[in-house]
Amino acid sequence: MASDNTIRILDGNTFVVSEDTGDIEATPSEPTGLFSLDTRFLSRWVLTVNGERLNALSYDDLQYYEARFFLVPGLATHYIDAKLSIVRERAVGGSFREQLTILNHDENPVDLEIRMDAGSDFADLFQVKDEIVNKKGELYAEAEADRLRLGYRRGNFRRETVITTSGPARYDRNGFAFTVHLEPNSRWSTDIEVRTYALGPGGRDLRMGLRVHGGERLALQHDLREWIAAAPKVNSECEHLARTYQRCLVDLAALRFSPLSLGGTLPAAGLPWFMTMFGRDSILTCLQVLPFAPGLSRTTLRILAALQGTRFDDFREEDPGRILHEMRYGETAAFEEQPHSPYYGSVDATPLFVVLLDEYERWSGDAALVRELEQECRAALRWIDEYADLVGDGYVWYERRNTDTGLENQCWKDSWDSISYRDGRLPGFPRATCEVQGYAYDARVRAARMAREFWDDPAFADRLERDAARLKERFNRDWWVPDGEFYALALDADGRQADVLSSNIGHLLWSGIVDHDRAEKIAHHLVGPRLFSGWGVRTLAEGEVRYNPIGYHNGTIWPFDNSFIAWGLRRYGFAEEAATIADGILDAARYFEGRLPEAFGGYPRELTKFPVEYPTACSPQAWSTGTPMLLLRTMLGLEPHEGHLSVEPRLPVGMGRIEVLDIPGRWGRVDAFARGRLELDKLA
Amino acid sequence: MLDATARFFEDLDRRGYEPLLARTSGTIRFDLNEGPRTTHWLLTVDRGRLRSSQEDREADVVVGTSPALFEGLVTGREHGIAALLRGDMTMTGNARLVVQVERILPGPPESHGPRQRPRRGVR
Question: Inter-chain contact A389–B116, Cβ cutoff 8 Å?
Answer without folding.
Answer: yes
